[in-house]
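Budget justification note: compute hours in this period were largely spent on complex prediction jobs such as the one shown. Inputs:
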Amino acid sequence: MKEEKIELIKDGKRLSGRGFEELRSIKIEVGVLKRADGSCYFELGDNKVIAAVYGPREMHPRHFQNAKMAVVKYRYNMAPFSVDDRKRPGPDRRSQEISMVSRKALDPVILRELYPKTAIEVYVEVLQSDAGTRTAGINAASVALADAGIPMRDLVSSVAIGKIDGEVVLDLDAKEDNFGEADMPIAMIARTNTITLLQMDGRFKKEEFERGLKIAMSGCRKIYELQKDALVKKYSKSGNEE
Amino acid sequence: MGQEVIEDIRKDYVYDLIEKGKRADGRGFLDFRNIVVERDLIKKAEGSTRVQIGDTVVLVGVKVEPGEPFPDTPNKGILMTNAELVPLASPEFESGPPGENSIELARVVDRGIRGSETIDLEKLCIEEGKKVWMVFIDIHTLDNDGNLVDAAALGAIMSLLNIAIPYEQYGLTGEDMQIRDTPVAVTVVEIGGNLLVDPSVYEESAATSKLTVISNADGSISGLQKSGSTGLTEEKIVQMTKIGIEKAREIREKYLPKI
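Corresponding output:
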């Protein structure tokens, strides 16, 4: 269903009124679920995702165990009502790929060697989707891992960069994603400036790619600060209560 | 194995407390935990409700889309209820195709809505035999601290209030969907001969039997589901049903409009 082309940039501003290098509004809440070992609710504009972490716990089935380190499981799942046309419940090819790349985005920061033979399980539920759910999921998952007390080298922060009406812009929303020319999600370890996820579809010129990457990395750094703030807020608060 | 031992200890603890007339969280046998509801959190859904009972959280979303009617009911809309016990919500839930517990949850909620005839399915017919509105009720569990059924059923009926059918999107016109009744589910469990409502997850595992009673505004019953490993006497069933109807009335008065 191809819809008519719409103008995404008017008078140097995006439809949402955002600047080219401006993130959508972000809300982070830590420790929102009782049963999970760690959890995080993450809003990025109209995206609403929630992540839970269980473990380290016994790995099932056994033959997936790794004798040297913990195995990270990551499940990205969309609620059927999270999108305009109801999504059929259960995994599909898209969500399986997202689960895989998200897991690989987080693997490098987790001190997996401390927990051989176990599983560290990350579950991400997308409650409402508006483009950028995988980046929101990774941001939430990374905070949930910290909330679960999993030893980590750093947090992972993620955002997408894209191209609309010929301009390189940060953090595409659904309209921009549907009618834009390129979309490139990245994830980064802020402390070392290491990229742990990089995907792209659409078309970038080499110069646009290089500039886009820089903008996306600075976006990740902003998100990193918000993630840290949310964790500090939760744990300094619970410290005062005791 | 460690898990199973802890399970048994917890069961014994719950059981012993109840024998002394107490519950772990201090409430009476016929008290619900605190209920918090929040409506219309999901813009992409025609209706949605987050229901929290104690630490149990479910999010119910309703989507309305046109589709083909079933051949045996060509003039009626379609109601579909689905539940996902996502592994995010509990260490006991696993990913994979829906298991018997999620199917039971969806079917009990569905039966309550359907049995009460709260939705007039004939009004959801667009063109007989060709096109009708399909109403999808999706139950997404977020945190399982017991009694998912009552939370999901309340979320379902609340999400169905004032549904604006997306006529415009499909070039159609018509009126908004109205509900005709307010079914409410109340689950009663038996532990050591005592009857309790709104079981926590540990009480659920200690319960010998469980009865979910879905009742309507006029006190009639539109759904029943017994589960658990032990049988129930007629006397107990009557008693449990009475409790179920009475508690449902309290919840209805607090959270649902008069029909």
